[in-house]
Specification:
Blueprint lengths: L10 E3 L6 E4 L5 H18 L4 H17 L1 H12 L3 H25 L3 E2 L6 E8 L2 E6 L6 H12 L3 E6 L4 H13 L7 E3 L7 H6 L3 E7 L2 H13 L3 E5 L4 E5 L5 H13 L9 E7 H17 L18 H16 L3 E4 L15 E4 L16 E7 L2 H8 L4 E2 L1 E5 L3 H10 L4 E4 L14 E2 L2 E2 L4 H6 L2 E8 L1
Parallel strand pairs: 5-6, 5-8, 6-7, 8-9, 10-11, 10-16, 11-14, 13-14, 16-17
Antiparallel strand pairs: 1-2, 3-4, 4-20, 9-19, 12-13, 15-18
């Protein structure tokens, strides 16, 4: 996932118009110290609260998210450009993850009795303390709540360093949790630049960190945390394969494939990015795929009939333009799109399909963080799996087949943190989420997610 901050000011810049709507002064070192002290103090009290109390607060946060979802959606769309209806759905999904952990946390963190030579021995799950969350702009509410809901229910406290182009989202999330009843200091937003992260992770009061973002950002945080011997969870980039074999329902695969590529204006780590299609059906798939891309409406994300809004920043737009130009220079063919919108003040890029790409080229192994699909043809399942795995990433994979033996082979051999058969890759509070290889390590969501930031304590009593 492309988490980029190159000397970015903390500001709301509307990607649809290019207009700077509001700027924010970053916290001073003294203000950061005050917030860290408050977080440490809040933890000593919060860890003593009951699951029932935390559950009540988290359910209240879900109520607020559902009640004011249109207000929060407007903030999201204004700051980073996702279609308004998708932003509403994001607020609703945040409410769901709150309700999930409000209901399940006590069960996930219950003592586990183990029979040993002791009179009584068991596993106890206890909170760690202050956890730093470094979060990206592309799902500015969801990424934060999928960390905050389990972390706060476990008795930890959170400090958020959000992406600098979504400051109003960051402040709104803090306000939601405060309004829900969580005591002061249990969750705080820090309006700071990326240059302050290393000093915060070094602080003894901060016990762990989680980052969703780019590979360089993840490596930087993990390195700083490693020097302090502190736990880190990383959810980084992806260039997910979308494998379609001969037995697949081609129409359903195309329909889902377009949605999977264009989700969030193409700016999703788990978007389908590399379409790997069996030669026997490739012509039909390509024809339908191009037709669906042609029908997409690019425009103002506040309008209900808009399918694709602007890219979040000028830098993202520039990156996509350069990547497509590089692919063409290396022999790729553009089937549709391939350009930014001329005479537009916003960061608009046409839905684009690239084909005839050398699968061993450097560009074929890069992540395209925008509405660009790469289309490859393969002769059989062996070639499909080999190509799918021929990347440094391993986040998600979608594969389409109606042959049980092929299904089982794809599940076993695709190198990814998740494999979805005949469906698009998505996160679900009930299932663990995360990647392998350079897509990161650790898991979010489900019971595995809440266990990442607790002390898994062995207790032995004679």
């Amino acid at each position: 996932m492309a988490w980029r901050e190159k000397n970015m000011s903390i500001a709301t810049i509307n990607p649809t118009t290019g207009e700077t709507l509001k700027t924010f002064d970053p916290l001073t070192d003294r203000e950061i110290e005050t917030k860290l002290a408050l977080a440490a103090e809040a933890f000593e009290k919060h860890r003593q609260t009951t699951f029932q109390q935390r559950s009540q607060w988290l359910n209240k946060a879900a109520d607020i998210l559902e009640r004011d979802k249109q207000k929060f959606a407007q903030i999201m769309t204004t700051e980073m450009g996702k279609p308004f209806q998708a932003a509403i759905a994001e607020a609703e999904k945040c409410a769901k993850v709150c309700r999930f952990y409000a209901e399940k946390a006590e069960e996930f963190l219950a003592d586990v009795e183990i029979t040993t030579d002791a009179s009584n021995s068991y596993i106890s799950y206890q909170p760690l303390g202050v956890v730093l969350a470094v979060m990206p702009w592309n799902f500015p509410f969801w990424q934060v709540f999928r960390f905050a809901a389990p972390a706060l229910m476990a008795g930890n406290v959170g400090i958020l360093k959000h992406a600098s182009n979504v400051p109003q989202c960051a402040l709104a999330i803090e306000e939601i949790l405060q309004q829900a009843g969580f005591p002061e200091g249990v969750f705080q937003t820090l309006l700071i630049g990326a240059d302050k992260v290393e000093a915060i992770i070094k602080d003894d009061r901060v016990k762990a960190a989680t980052l969703t973002g780019s590979e360089p950002a993840g490596a930087s945080l993990a390195s700083a945390a490693g020097k302090q011997i502190k736990k880190v969870v990383l959810e980084l980039g992806g260039s997910d394969p979308f494998v379609v074999l001969e037995s697949a329902d081609i129409e359903a695969a195309v329909e889902t494939g377009v949605s999977a590529r264009m989700l969030n204006n193409g700016q999703s780590c788990i978007a389908a990015k590399r379409f790997i299609v069996a030669e026997a059906i490739a012509d039909k798939f390509e024809k339908l795929f191009v037709e669906k891309f042609e029908a997409l409406k690019l425009g103002n994300p506040m309008q209900e009939d808009t399918d694709i809004g602007p890219l979040a920043t000028e830098a993202i737009l520039s990156d996509i333009e350069q990547q497509v130009a590089k692919a063409v220079d290396n022999g790729a063919k553009i089937l549709i799109g391939g350009k930014a919108l001329p005479d537009s003040a916003g960061n608009f890029y046409q839905p684009t399909i690239l084909t005839e790409i050398d699968p061993d080229s450097a560009i074929a192994r890069e992540e395209f963080f925008g509405p660009v699909a790469m289309l490859f043809r393969v002769k059989d399942i062996d070639e499909a799996i080999a190509l799918a795995n021929n990347i440094p990433f391993g986040l998600g994979a979608s594969a389409w087949t109606n042959v049980p033996e092929e299904r089982d082979r794809l599940i076993k051999d695709l190198e990814a943190g998740s494999v979805f058969i005949n469906g698009l890759v998505k996160s679900d509070p009930r299932l663990p989420f995360g990647g392998i290889k350079r897509s990161g390590f650790g898991r979010e969501l489900s019971s595995q997610g809440i266990h990442e930031f607790v002390n898994i304590k062995t207790v032995w009593i004679k």
